[in-house]
Every structure is written in structure tokens, then in C-alpha cells.
Design brief:
The chain is mainly β. Helices cover about 10% and strands about 50% of the residues.
Length: about 120
């Protein structure tokens, strides 16, 4: 078999899903995806984060109409309110400002955290 990159891939008939199994997997994925009201956009840009007495820069990894996933050097408290701002990188872009709540805090290495934010308001 040719792999997606053009490399030969060894597979037996036992390893290959049937057409019906593939259709079922695709249908299950579609049902899961449709549970989201907004599409996630993968981005990799700086975001200014402000919460209580903390203010710092972080890296926004994905953004949707209802949330944001950021990589930060500082942890925030679950349930705390935040304000975020992404400055435009070009003249054609607009500043993005929003308020939200911290709904996820996961350590990813000794000096980093994945922060999930549920956006509660998007500002002009």
C-alpha cells in the first residue's frame, strides 16, 4: 500500500477496517464534532492575559467563539475571571479583546501550563 506520504506501508487484511467500520467511525466523529457550537481555529500568536493582580504574555494555541486555549508560564486559579487581548499583526487585522473564566489548568512541564478559558464576552 502507498501511505499518505508516498511511502510503502505494510498491512494485512486483518489490520484494515471494513468500509462499514470506516463509515461508522466517520459518523461517530461527525456527531462528536457537531456538539461544538463553534469551530476551533488553530493559531499560534501572543496574547496578553490579565487576572486579578497578574498580567502576563502567553501563547494562544487555539481560539473559538466560546473559548481559548493558551500556553503560559504562570498558572491561574480555576474559576478566576480573565481579560485577554490579541494585538493585530497586520493593518488588515483587528484587535481581539474578550473576558472569560479559567476552566482548565494543566501543567505541561516544570515551567508551563495549558490554560483553558471559557469566553463570556467579546469586546469591541
Amino acid at each position: 500500500l502507498a501511505g499518505t506520504c508516498g511511502y510503502a506501508v505494510e498491512a494485512s487484511d486483518n489490520d484494515m477496517p471494513t468500509v462499514m467500520e470506516e463509515l461508522k467511525m466517520l459518523q461517530e466523529q461527525r456527531v462528536y464534532d457537531e456538539k461544538r457550537n463553534f469551530i476551533r481555529m488553530k493559531i499560534n500568536t501572543l496574547v496578553q492575559v490579565r487576572s486579578d493582580d497578574k498580567e502576563f504574555m502567553a501563547r494562544c494555541k487555539d481560539l473559538s467563539g466560546s473559548g481559548m486555549l493558551i500556553l503560559a508560564e504562570q498558572a491561574l486559579t480555576l474559576g478566576s475571571t480573565v481579560e485577554v487581548c490579541i494585538e493585530p499583526e497586520t493593518e488588515k487585522q483587528q484587535r481581539f479583546r474578550a473576558s472569560g473564566e479559567v476552566v482548565r489548568v494543566d501543567p505541561v512541564n516544570p515551567s508551563g501550563y495549558i490554560l483553558g478559558l471559557a469566553l463570556t464576552a467579546i469586546h469591541d
